[in-house]
Amino acid sequence: MHAFDYKSPEVLAEALQQLADSDGSAKPLAGGTDLIDQMRTGRHQPTLVIDIKKVAELNVLECAGDGLHVGAATPCYRICGDDNVQQDYTALADACNIIGGVQIQSRASVGGNLCNSGPAGDSIPAMIALRGICVIAGSAGTREVPVAEFCTGPGQNVLADNELLVEIRFPPRPTASGSHYRRMIPRNEMDIAVVGVGASVTLNEAGTTITDACIGLGAVGPTPLLAARAGECLVGQTVSDATLANAVEAAKEIISPITDMRGTQEYRVHVTGVLVRRVLETAISRATGDPCVVRPGH
Amino acid sequence: MSTAEKPSYKVIGTRPIRHDGVDKVTGRALYGADIKLSRMLYGATVRSPHAHAKIVRIDTSQAELMPGVRAVITSEDVPEQGDRVVELGEGAVNMRHLAANVMAREKVLYKGHVVAAVAADDVHTAEEACARIEVEYETLPPVLDLLKAMSADAPILNDDIRTESIGSAPSGSDQQTNVAKHFMFEKGDIKQGFADADIIVERTFDTAMVHQGYIEPHNATAHWNADDKITVWMSTQGTFSARQQTAELLLMPVSSVKVVPMEIGGGFGGKISVYLTPLAALLSKKTGRPVKILMSRTEVFEATGPTPGSHMRVKLGAKSDGTLVAGEAWIAFEAGAYTGSPIGAACMCVFACYDLPNGQVEGFDVCVNKPRTNAYRAPGSTHVAMATETLVDELCEKLKMDPTEFRIKNAAGEGTRRVDGPVYPRIGMVETVEAIRDSEHYKTTLDGKFCGRGVASGFWFNVGLKSSVSATVNSDGTVALVEGSTDIGGTRTSIAMQLAETLGIAAEDVNPVVVDTDSIGYTDITGGSRVTFSTGIAAINAAISIQEQMCQRAAILWETDAENVRYEEGHLVGPSDQRLSFRELAEKLRELGDAVVGYGTSGSETQGGAFGTHCVDVEIDPELGKVQILRYTIAQDAGTAIHPSYVEGQMQGGVVQGIGWALNEEYWYDEQGEMHNPTFLDYRIPTCYDVPMIDTIIVEVPDPQHPYGVRGVGEVPICPPPAAIANAIYDALGIRMTELPMAPHRVLAAYLGRNTDD
Description:
By secondary structure, chain A is α+β, with helices and mostly antiparallel strands. Helix content of chain A is about 35%, strand content about 25%. Chain A is globular, with a radius of gyration of 19 Å.
């Protein structure tokens, strides 16, 4: 591993200044679960590592009238242990609960997961489904980008060299809404998604008709995907097998999976269909008040 | 369960706390990576990015200019071996190949093949220096497919290989080839056998290359002293084997090398061959300072000794009453870059569980551009068990016969001759099947829509080989036991227990230590399930010697002749009923003649063979193809279980590795021969969430060649799981899986494409 400088600013402005001064040779470090390994293998060779875990704005976890704010460096264990997240943003809790083991969850952040921009990042389809918005700060000010538009390719995203992801903001949850994230992995834990699916569903007061739906897909394209048409085709429909089958077909239309050591292209297409249906079923049950405890891996 | 009247033992069969337990659980045990020596340097290696290439040029000048770099070596620094074949413990080894595997000479034969090494003041400098070494390659077409590698027009890996014929195989030609060995074993009349059969089943099987997956990567620290004495600290399954390999590779006398064993974080056969040791020694020779090299996980996967992928066609014939009458097998193994896969063992194991009157087995050892394969827990036997035990299950299905009934009817027993020749002494194959048949698990009905149950058996030879121990009686009545068998599975304790049993003292009163090659007599590797058997015999012999010496010392005390003193259950008994305990006499030894030191050796004994039968229940998600193990029971003949907890541990550990091999583990190569999953993230060994508690049934059919009846237990438990799980999948879904691993995408594809009239 190359020698590098290390700084741990406590104020956002300071972190942004250090980033701006480094001309692209710096890397922000949150949990470090991806970055440290990538530095060890030589994939990234930053001359400066900026540890952002001490920056207050990046460690918020607040549920207020305007929705949920998750700081970019907030570790997974805080997110999946939070009552509000478990209750109203369940898909995010589901994802944070299956990223790595206890040690990883104590360090890793969803902001880091997003900035690493891996196609299989577990938290990203969940955040897409919950319509998360990335709040990005840079020398020129702040801008907002939907999570669904943040990643631009494997390991690539919209962040400029002098920009930092500050937080992910989620809109307030309507009543009679439920969400879920699950993935197919060959083992039951400690694995990377072969396919990951996040979905959020809102029902009418009677609990019979879908009034809103949003679906995120992972590991089936160069970036995590928003399955826009799959969500839209559910709106206004009554809950039925046929309704869900339409969403499954719409989701399959936008994916372009590859064959690799985690699964074949053909298998991923098939599993996308299975998981979209299962995840929607769970999200719908949760929207009706059933908590639907899911055993990881099953 | 016991199959015969069992002698009453005081120590054997109990479960004392292991002697090395406190150091291990408190983190104080010292492993190879813990070594720190004064003025020590750190080594790193340059490895080939190509699977098959000629080395055109290596320029080390930029690395040598770096501050902190102390030495750089390439194959020019590794002694030429010429055409030498040397016996190295687990078989004859072509030294030119062994040397070229340690450091590539003219060609690289797999990605990760070492081409140069650096010693520097710290590991980061060493790694940076490696990055500055320029290697120019002329790439060659990689040979990755087993069957293509065997064809006459395949690119040749090693220009010195000609097919060696073994058994009744026709003699090979003088053509260059990738087929290094051709085995043929025959018994009876194979044509007549199949002609007599009422039912014949035949299938083709493929299994992927898999790795042992030990947690601790390879390591070596070496110091080449000014007097040409070399000391090595390393994790190894055999100090004397490592000593000999290192000495032969360096063209030094064995006596000039001392190997100091560190604790081992897993071996399973993979820590017998040396990789880093000669490099560390040569870097030390150049610098005059100790040099330490550690492998990364990726280096372990890409460039140590996994077990081969295989292609097998096996055929079985039976009479309608369920009598097996004929078996035929054609087996090809990936040797990796150099010859030496366990194809011979596979050919001997393929029908070893059964009394087969007519058999023919043909096997091929085939070089491909993958790492040179090496031993992995019952090497070769798991592959062939997958084939044979699947076909046995198919026969049972067609005969409408219970799988345990069929196996009991056809089981090999005392006097059965294997297809490759040897005749079995007393063995416990039948008893393990009976134990499964009578188990709570097998008697319980399995319900559930996509659930299934499978049964399979397995065999492993187990070996004897040589061991030495010495044992000194301390004045407090304890015994210091010195041994050369490095401890992988709790053998310090299982050896100490046999010494304690023989002396009639407590296991806790024996203090076992594993020492270096200068400090104990010759001892073969910890492998072949041999240590509790063979080093155990050495310890028993040492204890018998101590008994005799203690009788002599008591005779001095009681002023009588030694033959008048008896040794009874840890006591010395004199002619006038004088009685002293072992400890009481030990306290008086200061005044009674010479020091009491027992030596014991073994080497002439061979083991009778180990058998196991497994039963597994699975549940499959038919939409995802994912297999969950619901329940698992293993019955295995341990002869006599010295420490039942460690026997159970070996059985459970073997099953877990077998489950990994069955369901998810594989080297995933691209067309250029690059392994895409050289990390534990994507090379999926089972986690604790993937296996249930493995229930164990220890069957005890004592091996008459060991004083207490011990049979080795370490290897055979890995053999049956893939076949047992494949049979359970068939029971659940009606599909015969013939390719390992039975990963979700393969199970799903087979299920969706199933032929309903099959």
